[in-house]
Amino acid sequence: MRAAVMRGFSESLSIETVADPACPSDGVVLRVLACGICRSDWHAWTGADPVALPHILGHEYCGEVVAVGPLVTGWRLGDRVIAPFILACGTCPDCRAGHQTICATQALPGFNMAGAYAEMLAVPHADANLARLPGSMEPALAASLGCRVTTAWQALTGRAALAPGEWLAVQGAGGVGLAALLLGRAIGARVVMVDVVAEKLAYAKALGADAVVNAAECDAVAAIRDITGGGAHVAVEALGIEATTLAALRSLRKLGRMVQVGMPAGDHLNMHLPMDAVYSGQLAIYGTRGMPGWRYPSLFGLIDGGHVDLSPLVARRVGLADASAELRAFDGPTPPGVAVITDFTR
């Protein structure tokens, strides 16, 4: 099969012909229909979240089942499916309690196993993780759900319990930030988007943000407090850096909830947080990472019911050989929207 192989950190990916993946006994092999290019891939590509080389990146994917292991009961050849980027075992106590994202033996395509920057992908634990794609959903949109949208949905509904009428402040107008905007609006919240790139903020405003704040031009915390009449009820940090984490916490009103969605890596593994604000404001801080596969139906229901249009997230459909350029773009301010690999022949 054709794959984009990482042979060095921060180096261009090598387009190669590699062996087709073997089918796990409890899993399937997918013909990859689309794969998103995510900032988390960039963390691995730069070595901030190191992986063993050589390696194939890619954790936001959907595909068609082309091989089925003998222990799989729920899936057949030709099924169009999606899976969370955290593939849980399905049998441990955490999985049985519904907390698959903290499974101790989780498999992570693109991180601790080969990912989906390739024509095919092996997916273990298929019965515990796969979800059937709605027939009306195009592959590029489905792939964009795989990390950014599902993580935002879990953050807003599974962690912070965002309610209609509340103010949501989102730090970072990238893929996960825009997903939080669209989903927050669908829930009935009012949304303030914060970034330092005017183009991204204009895009967020066009997608329905109630207000936008350019943190490069003003005191973002003061601006949020003024816009929301005292502070946001919920804040989402979508970049994984100290400055925006501090701003997210300080932008909350008393009894507010902050969700750390962005993955801290490199110099941001350890942060100095304003615990005085946490204490005096009686704030809640939630971490979140991914979404369990069993929660896909709630998200699909929202989309199929016409309550949210996520198609504006997909800004660029690219070929496999374009992945290197898209990864390099994360070195600086990236353009609005999400890039998705939809052509594995070029």
From TrEMBL:
One of its GO terms (molecular function) is zinc ion binding. Its cofactor is Zn(2+). SUPFAM superfamilies: GroES-like, NAD(P)-binding Rossmann-fold domains. Gene3D superfamilies: Medium-chain alcohol dehydrogenases, catalytic domain (3.90.180.10). It comes from the Bacteria. Residues 8-341 form the Enoyl reductase (ER) domain. Keywords: Metal-binding, Oxidoreductase, Zinc. InterPro entries: ADH-like_C, ADH-like_N, ADH_Zn_CS, ER, GroES-like_sf, NAD(P)-bd_dom_sf, Zn_alcohol_dh. Belongs to the zinc-containing alcohol dehydrogenase family. This is Alcohol dehydrogenase GroES domain protein. It comes from Rhodobacter ferrooxidans. The lineage of its organism: Bacteria, Pseudomonadati, Pseudomonadota, Alphaproteobacteria, Rhodobacterales.
